[in-house]
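USER: Note each token:
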Amino acid sequence: VLDTKDLRVFKVTVNGQDAKFVFGENHSFKGTPLEITLPFELRRGQEAIVEISFESSPKSSALQWFNKLQTSGKKHPFLFSQLTFFFPPLLQATHCRAIFPCQDTPAVKLTYYAEISVPKELVALMSANRDGEMPDPEDSSRKIYHFSQNVPIPCYLIALVVGALESRKIGPRTLVWAEKELVDKSAYEFAEAEAMLKTAEDLAGPYVWGQYDLLVLPPSFPYGGMENPCLTFVTPTLLAGDRSLSNVIAHEISHSWTGNLVTNKTWEHFWLNEGHTVYLERRIGGRLFGEQFRHFQALGGWRELQNTINTLGDKNPVTNLIPNLNEVDPDVAYSSVPYEKGFALLFYLEQLLGGPDVFIGFLKAYIQQFAYKSIVTEDWKKFLYSYFKDKVDVLDKVDWNSWFHAPGMPPVKPTYDTTLANACVALSQRWIKAKESDLGSFSSADLKEMSSHQLIEFLALLLLEDPLPVSHVKRMQQVYDFNAINNSEIRFRWLRLCIKSKWEEAIPLALKMATDQGRMKFTRPLFRDLYSFDKCRDLASKTFLEHRASMHPVTSMLVGKDLKQDQ
């Protein structure tokens, strides 16, 4: 029995003999099981080669086909796959089955080999090692690319992209790929990749995948990044021009150990992938930019978690670290809970068990113990207890039940060094407390000592409070000129702040950001805020409908729900 979704199957053979096959009952978002009857009895140890002739649907939920106008170069079409959509109920249903028949679960790992035929002016890439290319013997206008992935992976990590792509070498094992218009900018932005890889190897053990390439996708890519092995996919919204958003690269690099090598067996245990990856990402940041920076990022993550739980509700079962995915409301979006609640647990344990140097020893041993396997939280916890067998009394004091199975904020808050956050808090408090008569006291000098990370945090703190009076955001624009900043994380929070304060001049800028790119982290909140602002509700809906066709199908579906277009 194999999983399929929207596939047509023409023929199945087993060891060359025709085999009978039928489709089982259709399960809405899960698709349809393909049941194959073996034409002979298999003996123990006998090899069976099952060959399936099939085709995917043009509407496949796993593939996005762009016409040439949706690309940067406007000359050639573009295709990319995205097999994971992390929001219930699709959390359990990775979308690999919408490309080919497979055992579509992270519990099963496989190696793969592929030959991809494409028009010769385009390039094909996969989440695998590139094994060369050759002219297509059957069609002189095409060529064939060969790929192999010899490390066993769950099928949600199979990835394919085809487009007019160019590459630049940015390290001994790293090329950055993008359309011509973005490739040099991308090479500059991600130049720290090798330093991050070396740091990660030092922390987590050898990098087993050979190549580590980066691919910058068209703007409608719905995520910040996707950790496809050998070929991380990233959004062009990371191209800030100052390398300040490279923590996303550190995150995707970290997945080479936690997620891709040690994998959650079911999506309920998604925190094992993401909590450990955020922990490693921040350890890399700490090594490269100092321990105060790591604590600053960690504290920002705690605030992000508070934000998410305020939005979802502190009794909502989706805020459990290990949610029961059968009970979850399908409209509740993918959230920061597995990332930030998972990280908070690991950061708390680090402080409890003897500090960063002690805890990284555990993490390295954990990766070694479970590499190439898929596991659940109980496996992780048993290993934690055996590794720290001299500290069982300390571990027994942890309120495991609340950490794993209670909704809302964690039962304990770790300790944070607040040095870098203090400036953000102080400035945000000045704005919150300022009366009209105090607005003259603000000047561009307020930001002189602040990094772009601190600007993001300053704006995030203001977003947690009641909206500022419109006079305040106008003054903020006068003295800080946030409209001129292209860093997507700063711009996103600034525009949300303006819309929440009902500053009408920001409406066109917010609509432009919501439609110029399709990263769900930005597009959904911007559209939701615009829709909540009575002055532009109709314009928000109209703009969405005009741009809907060029959005990623999943982004389009979710924004449609947010704007009450699709009941």
Remarks:
- Residues 291-312 form the longest helix (22 residues).
- The chain has 18 helices and 20 strands.
